[in-house]
């Protein structure tokens, strides 16, 4: 029987949730996210990652959480500035300490903003990124539209999220494989997130509605899909 999507709270805004999230080991996943973002941007722009002329420019990170990915991105790539937004004040409190500890306060700006209605100008950012925000949103299409709207023509959209497993057995296997040594509470958060995630077919359907090739979304692990696309101007 196909696993149905079960929504979880849209905003993780308790101190416990923020602390548990921040203490989980996301380092390998975050490094891979940044490396693959840079590789896609390099291919899209025609510049080698090591080329001095290769610049991401102004980046917006939607659902930044405790700003772990912006820190990793700025560590790996000197030529970018990041607007890191989240709706949860408790996440942003920890994010401030994280960017301060990494001496990134001049390159990363934090803001409490709703990703469904950001208020930024059209085409304001060169790159829009997001890791694991979509499964928090009951109706994801609006936030995906917002990502595209604030991204410049020929800019890059790079979104990754959890992929809902086919059934309960597969879901539990993923929880035990990747969070089996975490606390019971952390395992519950991960389990709930997998339940709330979109399937590969569902996210491809949303992307198609935005005018993008559904094949720009690919399964990139046993538990993630990634949407990587260039925001081509409508002619």
What does this structure look like?
There is one protein chain. This protein is an alpha/beta fold. The chain has a single domain, classed as Rossmann fold (3-Layer(aba) Sandwich). Helix content is 41%, strand content 20%. The protein contains 8 helices and 7 strands. The chain has helices at 15-23, 27-45, 68-76, 89-101, 140-150, 168-179, 184-196, 200-209; strands spanning 57-62, 80-86, 108-112, 125-131, 151-162, 217-219, 224-230. It has a 7-stranded mixed beta sheet with strand order 3-2-1-4-5-7-6, sandwiched between helices. Strand 4 (125-131), helix 5 (140-150) and strand 5 (151-162) form a beta-alpha-beta unit. Helix 2 crosses helix 3 (68-76) and helix 6 (168-179) crosses helix 7 (184-196). The chain is globular and about 45 Å long. The termini are far apart. The model has no long low-confidence stretch (mean pLDDT 92).
Please specify the SSE layout and strand pairing:
Elements: H1 15-23, H2 27-45, E1 57-62, H3 68-76, E2 80-86, H4 89-101, E3 108-112, E4 125-131, H5 140-150, E5 151-162, H6 168-179, H7 184-196, H8 200-209, E6 217-219, E7 224-230
Parallel strand pairs: 1-2, 1-4, 2-3, 4-5
Antiparallel strand pairs: 5-7, 6-7
Helix pairs in contact: 2-3, 6-7
């Amino acid at each position: 029987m196909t696993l149905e999507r079960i929504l979880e709270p849209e905003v993780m805004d308790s101190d416990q949730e923020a602390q548990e999230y921040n203490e989980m080991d996301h380092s390998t996943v975050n490094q891979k996210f940044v490396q693959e973002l840079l590789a896609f941007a390099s291919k899209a722009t025609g510049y080698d990652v090591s080329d001095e002329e290769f610049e991401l420019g102004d980046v917006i990170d939607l659902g930044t959480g405790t700003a772990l990915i912006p820190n990793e991105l700025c560590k790996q790539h000197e030529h970018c500035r990041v607007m890191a937004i989240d709706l949860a004040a408790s996440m942003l409190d920890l994010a401030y300490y994280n960017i301060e500890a990494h001496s990134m306060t001049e390159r990363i700006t934090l803001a409490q903003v709703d990703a469904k209605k950001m208020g930024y100008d059209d085409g304001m950012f060169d790159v829009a990124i997001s890791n694991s925000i979509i499964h928090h949103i009951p109706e994801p299409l609006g936030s995906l539209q917002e990502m595209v709207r604030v991204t410049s023509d020929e800019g890059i959209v790079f979104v990754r999220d959890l992929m809902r497993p086919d059934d309960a057995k597969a879901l539990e296997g993923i929880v035990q494989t990747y969070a089996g040594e975490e606390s019971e509470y952390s395992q519950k958060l991960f389990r709930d997130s997998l339940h709330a995630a979109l399937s590969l077919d569902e996210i491809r359907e949303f992307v198609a509605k935005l005018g993008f090739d559904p094949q720009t979304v690919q399964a990139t692990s046993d538990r993630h899909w990634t949407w990587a696309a260039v925001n081509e101007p409508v002619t």
